[in-house]
Specification:
265 residues, mainly beta, seven-stranded mixed β-barrel, 4 helices, 49% strand
């Protein structure tokens, strides 16, 4: 797919947008049938033996264009767009309204407002909020706390690396086009024990899920989060630069409808 034009806005300050803090990047083996129900149909999923590489990105930003906030990105899998592959987000949860609006209207992300409740340094409870309705989603149990920046502990934080995390987004009610963007990351990184994710699926609500696209996307993102972890990395002293996305294809004027008629067991 050929990139056709830039997409930029100054409502949230001049890009690149800078985020600083710490994060946990956890890789999961996600069933291909789950990922295919989430990604656009025109993409080819990068898969092997019935699985793709997904997972989640859990970040705590102490500096950003919107002030401090938390973010959880459920990554459905990797899609192929020659000559490179890109991640596709199933769901993005943030606990700041302005960050949610920015994600939806600038990047076409499936962003939702959520609460992040911390019960000690090793437990994070995430609940989606929609007006006065709160839906409990996950308890994320960290096996070791993500270390805070401390010059005396730099040797324990791992080496400094620079990397790029390319992603696709769009095909939403706010951005019907297909977009491409990249997060340029500089941080200190080290492997850690994967976090344990606890969540529940409403398997008695299948009929409502069929007629409710929002409910379906939530259920599919839960399946992504509950899939098998294989690797976890701590990102400390994190600095992330995000450039405006570019339009890859114009798409339609309606949000993309995704695949499966019911979620797999």
């Amino acid at each position: 797919m050929e990139i056709k034009e830039n997409k930029c806005s100054s409502r949230y300050g001049k890009p690149p947008w800078i985020f600083k803090g710490s994060a946990l990047y956890q890789f999961h083996l996600v069933k291909a049938e789950i990922a295919k129900a989430i990604i656009p149909k025109e993409f080819r999923l990068v898969e092997a033996f019935g699985y793709t590489l997904g997972g989640f990105f859990l970040a705590n930003y102490n500096e950003s264009p919107f002030g401090p906030f938390d973010e959880l990105v459920a990554i459905a899998g990797i899609v192929w767009n020659p000559p490179t592959s890109h991640a596709w987000a199933a769901r993005v949860y943030v606990n700041r309204d302005s960050a949610c609006t920015h994600g939806r209207k600038e990047f076409g992300l499936p962003s939702q407002v959520a609460t992040f409740s911390k019960a000690g340094p090793q437990m994070i409870h995430v609940a989606e909020t929609d007006g006065h309705v709160t839906t409990d989603l996950y308890d994320i149990r960290l096996q070791s706390p993500i270390l805070k920046m401390n010059p005396l502990k730099w040797m324990a934080l791992g080496p400094t690396i620079k990397m790029s995390l390319p992603s696709f987004s769009g095909h939403t009610e706010h951005i019907p086009h297909l977009l491409k963007y990249s997060c340029q990351i500089e941080c200190r990184v080290k492997p850690t024990t994967p976090a344990r994710v606890l969540g529940s699926l409403d398997r008695n609500n299948t009929e409502n899920m069929e007629s409710n696209e929002c409910l379906k996307k939530r259920q599919m993102s839960i399946l992504v989060m509950l899939s098998k972890p294989i690797l976890a990395l701590e990102f400390n002293c994190l600095k992330m630069e995000v450039q405006p996305p570019v339009v890859v294809s114009k798409g339609s004027h309606q949000p993309l409808k995704h695949g499966l008629s019911s979620y797999p067991s």
